[in-house]
């Protein structure tokens, strides 16, 4: 399965004050707060971790059909990080999700998969071919098979990204 | 504070984060913060922090998990206020 999350950095500055008292403590674990505090660009780290949690939550929500606001239960760990790319894992209630984040000057885009073997099959899709099932989970409307390929849609501010797994 | 007053106070908290004014104007207990009011999930934590400040209560992670709609938020605030 796949999940994604895009964050418009400019929009996030308008919408959120991550330096607000209590903000980081409510959504990040102690280890994640340390990653933010020790990063040269703490703002980027805040949104990098947040987008990892959001992308992984989309898979968790599809797998379990559970809706909950559980940022602290989506525990992030970084495997690799530079100025334009990061990869890592998000664990939630015993399940591990794998993430890759593309860091641009004005936005971040994280993709999460449930199995690292799926990385080779990740594709970007055009928005116009997307429909939604009764759970609100998007799929490719042109796909006639009973096992419709799940896709993930994310938009924030000026940016929108649609990704899927090719068969 | 009765429930109507509590919902009014909650509406004042929610307003700056909502982008769907029509759903906000027609807000009921069934209104969902994300699906109906289109509130950004990163702003849900601001709502939790504003509730803590406004009502002088502490919302722990277990409460926060369920804080997805007006009804649950009201229920959690009422319980916290009663325990004071």
Automatic annotation (TrEMBL), chain A:
Ranges of residues in domain 4'-phosphopantetheinyl transferase: 2-100
InterPro entries, sorted: 4-PPantetheinyl_Trfase_dom, 4-PPantetheinyl_Trfase_dom_sf
Keyword terms of this UniProt record: Transferase
Claim: Secreted is one of the keywords in the record: no
Recorded GO MF terms: holo-[acyl-carrier-protein] synthase activity; magnesium ion binding
Keyword Magnesium set for record: no
Name assigned to this protein: 4-phosphopantetheinyl transferase family protein
UniProt source species: Flavobacterium cupreum
Automatic annotation (TrEMBL), chain B:
Gene3D superfamilies: ACP-like
Family matches, as InterPro entries: ACP-like_sf
Protein name, as recorded: Acyl carrier protein
Taxonomic source organism: Flavobacterium cupreum
């Amino acid at each position: 399965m796949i999940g994604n999350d895009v964050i418009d950095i400019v929009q996030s500055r308008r919408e959120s004050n991550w330096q607000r008292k209590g903000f980081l403590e409510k959504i990040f674990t102690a280890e994640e707060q340390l990653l933010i505090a020790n990063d040269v660009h703490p703002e980027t780290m805040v949104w990098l971790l947040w987008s990892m949690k959001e992308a992984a939550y989309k898979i968790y929500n599809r797998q379990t059909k559970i809706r909950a606001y559980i940022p602290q239960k989506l525990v992030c760990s970084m495997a690799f990080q530079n100025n334009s790319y990061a990869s890592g894992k998000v664990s939630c209630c015993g399940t591990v999700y794998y993430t890759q984040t593309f860091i641009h000057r004005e936005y971040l885009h994280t993709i999460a998969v449930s199995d690292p073997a799926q990385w080779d099959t990740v594709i970007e899709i055009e928005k116009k071919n997307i429909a939604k099932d009764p759970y609100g989970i998007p799929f490719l409307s042109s796909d006639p098979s009973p096992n419709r390929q799940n896709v993930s849609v994310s938009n924030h501010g000026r940016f929108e990204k649609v990704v899927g797994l090719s068969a | 504070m009765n429930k109507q007053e509590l919902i009014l106070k909650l509406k004042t908290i929610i307003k700056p984060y909502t982008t769907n004014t029509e759903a906000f104007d027609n807000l009921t207990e069934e209104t969902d913060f994300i699906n109906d009011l289109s509130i950004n999930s990163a702003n849900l934590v601001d709502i939790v922090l504003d509730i803590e400040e406004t009502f002088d209560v502490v919302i722990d992670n277990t409460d926060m998990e369920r804080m997805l709609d007006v009804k649950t938020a009201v229920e959690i605030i009422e319980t916290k206020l009663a325990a004071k």
